[in-house]
Amino acid sequence: MRVIASDIDGTLLRDFRPIAERVLRAVRACRDEGVEFIAVTGRPIRWLEPIRRQIPDLGTVICANGAVVYDCREDSVLEVHAIDPEDAAETIATLRRVWPGMLFGLETLEGLFVEPGFRTRSPAQAVPGPLSPVLAQRPTVLKILCRAEGWAADDLLGAARLSLRGIAQPSHSGSRSGLLEIAATGLSKAVTLARHCERLGVGPADVVAFGDMPNDLEMLSWAGRGYAMADGHPEAVAAADFTAPAVDEDGVAVVLEELLALHRGGGASPGRALPDRATR
Question: Which GO terms describe its cellular component (predicted)?
Answer without folding.
Answer: cytosol
